[in-house]
Amino acid sequence: MIQTPKNIAIVGSGLVGSLLAIYLRKLGHQITVYDRRPDIRKVAFSGRSINLAMSDRGWNALREVGVEEVIKELGIPMDKRAIHLVGEPEYYQKYGKEKEAIWSISRGVLNRRMIDLAEEDGAIFRFEEKVWDIDLAEATIYTGESDKGKWDAYKHDIVFGCDGAFSRVRHKMQRRSRFDYSQDFIDVGYKELTIPANEDGTHKLDKYSFHIWPRGKFMFIAMPNLDGSFTCTLFLPFEGEISFENLTTKDEVKEFFNTYFPSISQIIEDVTLDFFKNPTSAMVTMKCFPWTYWNKVALVGDSAHAVVPFYGQGMNAGFEDIYELNKIIAKHGDDWETIFQTYQTERKPNADAIAELSYRNFMEMSSKTADANFILQKKIEKHFSLKHPEKWLPVYSRVTFSDRPYVEALALGDAQEEIMAHIMKMPNIEEIWNSEVVENKILDLISKSENL
Amino acid sequence: MIQTPKNIAIVGSGLVGSLLAIYLRKLGHQITVYDRRPDIRKVAFSGRSINLAMSDRGWNALREVGVEEVIKELGIPMDKRAIHLVGEPEYYQKYGKEKEAIWSISRGVLNRRMIDLAEEDGAIFRFEEKVWDIDLAEATIYTGESDKGKWDAYKHDIVFGCDGAFSRVRHKMQRRSRFDYSQDFIDVGYKELTIPANEDGTHKLDKYSFHIWPRGKFMFIAMPNLDGSFTCTLFLPFEGEISFENLTTKDEVKEFFNTYFPSISQIIEDVTLDFFKNPTSAMVTMKCFPWTYWNKVALVGDSAHAVVPFYGQGMNAGFEDIYELNKIIAKHGDDWETIFQTYQTERKPNADAIAELSYRNFMEMSSKTADANFILQKKIEKHFSLKHPEKWLPVYSRVTFSDRPYVEALALGDAQEEIMAHIMKMPNIEEIWNSEVVENKILDLISKSENL
């Protein structure tokens, strides 16, 4: 289908905004990207980001516009988890089959490169341009120094809101009637910390692993950077016995790490430096609908669907939005109303599905890991999956190493849960968990299930 | 407990704002009520309100501050439903026991009187004072002609947000981290219409009834006014075969009423006048948390919990907020932080419960009334309840004619649903529904239930 070049505004120069700029430039549109923040290429990173794990969906979207290889140079493939328990040597879990890996990439490094690429393709970036209002019907955005000062008006044909979980563009849509919206915070916060490189620039932990120190209601993770360092995240409840609220002095923080993460205390010289320098951040699930306004405005990425980070799919889902949107554009040419309708109708159920999967992973991590039944169930699933890999694809693999819709992964997970609910009710399951009786029962239930 | 007089702002001069002003004046506080709209006593009503049904919770709250009797003069008790089916004479369903009734009151008439009463008690009302911003920590509100114009600052000790489902006060709280929020619109809209009085000032339908014309996915209701008229509401899907979207011409509207509501066509001279004059409005369930900010700001009524109107409890729930808040104030004196904490902790689950009950009533109305199983179930419940009134209190009665917490009413409803799920699975239930076997089975299940 023919595309008439449009004068398009993208609000937000983050990962999704930059990639969308690249896609739309390739279609011949005139692109202006507005961002209220300074050019990320000229300032230090914020110290509040979790390293990204690029998986298949993200790579697909990058490959489509020919930038997969240049971005791969910024990342490190992690083909396994490294699990660190207290007082035990670390052990490894392969993610999947040969060559299946997720890629650790620094958000800042990636974002800088993506903006470079979009600029090379001809997108115009206007940094420190604060958007305060949007006339949805006119696709006009208003920017200025302050909310109350003088505003400049920029008229466009189409506006894309790629301005994240607290989107200004969505904010404007939200004030209209019949706009469904929800934001739900979890009671766990996170803080970025850094494990520095060795003096010779090498990594202090295995470079090709996603490192996890699970501790029930809290955990610490580390992901490798090219410079030999690891970007780490401490996930910890805001309130309660062991919580951010109760870590207010240097001594308390040192004691906390010495007790629960002694191996980290050994490789970070003074863990309290980052701890008090970096902010404690909150995590939210945000859902809304509609995502579009007539043929004028559309939300893409976190502005349409923010998820908690426990599946590592936030950016991947946003990139997949663009990949799918591009396919829809190819079908409907200049009919932007149909493009936007189709886009939101097709993507919304998948966004809801990855939100649900991400939240479930958080619940598993924070409340089920100490539950004996849950541990047994996971053991049975793994045992069965090893014997019948073609009959029991882990949901994680379906989400991470596949481009099948998220809704299918959720349905797969539900079907497996249903089967396991039956299995866990079998008499003496604690003793017979690895028996043929259980194996055959699972096989039988699988044969009766519609989603497996 | 002693109360030190505070300088308190109430944002919103609606029903909840005015009643709260009366309560707080009685405790000796200095009260200023701000409202962006003109004085409702000096302008015509909006033509978009559903008449109110004051029930026990509302009366309790009015009685506590001695205004029950003056308000009762504005209302008409409705002790029964009048059901109007096409081609059948209307029939009546008593609401409850002797003297149990809900009271029809015009929102505008009630609001005017409540403002008078609050003013008599010494509350100051500042109308057409548009609140644009609130400094939560300082309890300072900013008002002005326009969002971008010059603002005046008013410093208070405490600010109450009683400014409804689209509250400005909440809007400010919502921008803080860890504020949970959701708004969910239903796909049914409503429109106000009026059945005028007879020429001699009498009512055209039975005056002491809540009139309902149920038609499956849509319905028409009428509630009496003192002047002989009825304030009516048409509930109808926004889109679909029979919908507001498809009623765009006078002929279509006339045809619609002639077909589905012939009796109304007869008593409203020209139904199309109101239909095209009055707006079509949307309905939303709004939930949020927290409701308070330290000892400075609290949300009361719809600003904290807006519900769909199908249980007639929106205003009653808001009035009960105030009644309960007053009890908490009596306990904790000047400790406003504890007062606000206790208030939100105690009220939030009840607000969620009435939201759920209201939504379920909508679902029953819009999708289950044509379901044969559902009709049979309701018939069995009614049959049993008449035989054993002490063992099967309808949830409606628990909500409407009681001051027990909404959470208990929801639990009662859930327990009854569970029992009926068993009953509906009994073989040949269609034939044995009024048999002793079923009766005994229900009695047996009740004896085993914890919530009955």
Give a verbal description of the structure.
Chains A, B: This is Kynurenine 3-monooxygenase. Chains A, B: Catalyzes the hydroxylation of L-kynurenine (L-Kyn) to form 3-hydroxy-L-kynurenine (L-3OHKyn). Required for synthesis of quinolinic acid. Chains A, B: Pathway: Cofactor biosynthesis; NAD(+) biosynthesis; quinolinate from L-kynurenine: step 1/3. 2 copies of one chain form a homodimer. Chain A is globular. In chain A, strand 15 and strand 16 (about 220-225) form a beta hairpin. The first copy, chain A, has about 450 residues and is α+β, with helices and mostly antiparallel strands. The first copy, chain A, contains 15 helices and 21 strands. In chain A, helix 13 (about 405-425) packs across helix 15. In chain A, strands 8-2-1-12-20-19 form a 6-stranded mixed beta sheet, with helices on both faces. In chain A, strands 6-5-15-16-17-14 form a 6-stranded mixed beta sheet, with helices on one face. Chain A has a 3-stranded antiparallel beta sheet with strand order 3-7-4. Chain A has helices at about 15-25, 55-65, 70, 105-120, 170-175, 250-260, 260-265, 270-275, 315-330, 335-370, 370-385, 395-400, 405-425, 430, 435-450; strands spanning about 5-10, 30-35, 50-55, 75-80, 80-85, 90-95, 100-105, 125, 130-135, 140-145, 150-155, 160, 180-185, 190-195, 210-215, 220-225, 230-235, 285-290, 290-295, 295-300, 305. Chain A has 3 domains: about 5-50 and about 105-185 and about 285-360, FAD/NAD(P)-binding domain (3-Layer(bba) Sandwich), CATH 3.50.50.60; about 190-275, no CATH class; about 370-450, no CATH class. In chain A, about 40% of the residues lie in helices and about 20% in strands. The interface of A and B includes residues 179 and 182 of A. Strand 13 of chain A pairs antiparallel with strand 13 of chain B, so a sheet runs across the interface.
